[in-house]
Amino acid sequence: MKLDLKEAYNNIGRLLTEVGRPDEALKYLEKALELDPKYNSAIINKGIALAGLSKYTEALELFNKAASLDPDNEKAWYNKALLYYILGRNEEAYECVLKALSINPNYVHALKLKHKLLYSRN
Known about the structure:
single chain; mainly alpha; Serine Threonine Protein Phosphatase 5, Tetratricopeptide repeat
């Protein structure tokens, strides 16, 4: 069995972000992207880690890159929507969350964000 290092680095980075250590996560996500610069999962996870460090512009650039590499990646669109929501850019967030849901109508996180966005309109 061949060890896939990019996937291992990506998973470590994702887990570090989930436990509140996005600064450490970036080191592993960078290693994954050195092995494969177009590894969309690592691109998205790096964006999530950067957003966790309030580096919103850099995070948005990565979500845009992920969506351009794979326009049918609901996670790229959802994270882009979530970032716009955090920034108070609700119209852009709504457009992105609708795109995520057009790809995967059962995406629970996107459905919850859509509900929040609709509620905030009223």
